[in-house]
Amino acid sequence: MRARRGLLAVALVALLAGCQTDSRQQALATGQGQVALRQMQSRAFDTTDQMFVQRAVIATLQDLGFVVDQADSAVGTVSGTKLDGFALRMTVVTRPRPPRQTMVRANATFNVRAVESPQPYQQFFAALSRSLFLSEQQVD
């Protein structure tokens, strides 16, 4: 009986060791996915007026059907929720990017999972670009 348990324990350890994956490969694979996601989420705009960009972010979120839940100009964050048969939450961070740009990063979540589809980010940044352009041209 004791020999059987010992054999079972050795077999279990061997089985679990066989399932081990190379953690370095795992980290690199995750990193590549994160880099691609960050590229979808980020855009730089040629302006140093961070308040101007934040106002455009708020207007863009509202135009896209989001309800702005929170805005903090000191930190540079705006969060909104879109309730259109589902709960999509988007948090947008603006920060200066030297020498003459403002970086905008949008992070969308559906329930508690990060949105990895490019469509919501493309839609948001296209609308934000139009809004910034029209505001710069003083078109209402």
**Percent range for helical residues?**
40-55%
- CATH fold node name of the domain at 42-136: TATA-Binding Protein
Shape, per Cα inertia axes: globular
Low-confidence stretches: 10-21
CATH architecture of the domain at 42-136: 2-Layer Sandwich
Distance between the termini: 84 Å
The computed structural class is: alpha+beta
**Percent range for β-strand residues:** 25-35%
Largest sheet: 6 strands, antiparallel
Total E-strand runs: 6
Number of helices: 4
What is the level 1 CATH name of the domain at 42-136?
A: Alpha Beta
Radius of gyration: 23 Å
Folded structure, characterized:
The chain has 140 residues and is of the alpha+beta class. The protein has a domain at 42-136: Kinase associated domain 1, KA1 (TATA-Binding Protein). Helix content is 49%, strand content 29%. The protein has 4 helices and 6 strands. The chain has helices at residues 2-18, 23-41, 50-63, 118-136, and strands at residues 42-45, 67-72, 77-83, 87-97, 101-110, 113-114. Strands 1, 2, 3, 4, 5 and 6 form a 6-stranded antiparallel sheet that branches. Helix 3 packs across helix 4. 16% of the residues are buried.
What's the short version?
It contains four helices and six strands.
Keywords:
49% helix; 6 strands; 140 residues; alpha+beta; six-stranded antiparallel β-sheet; single chain; TATA-Binding Protein
Element layout with pairings:
Elements (H helix, E strand, L loop, with lengths): L1 H17 L4 H19 E4 L4 H14 L3 E6 L4 E7 L3 E11 L3 E10 L2 E2 L3 H19 L4
Helix pairs in contact: 3-4
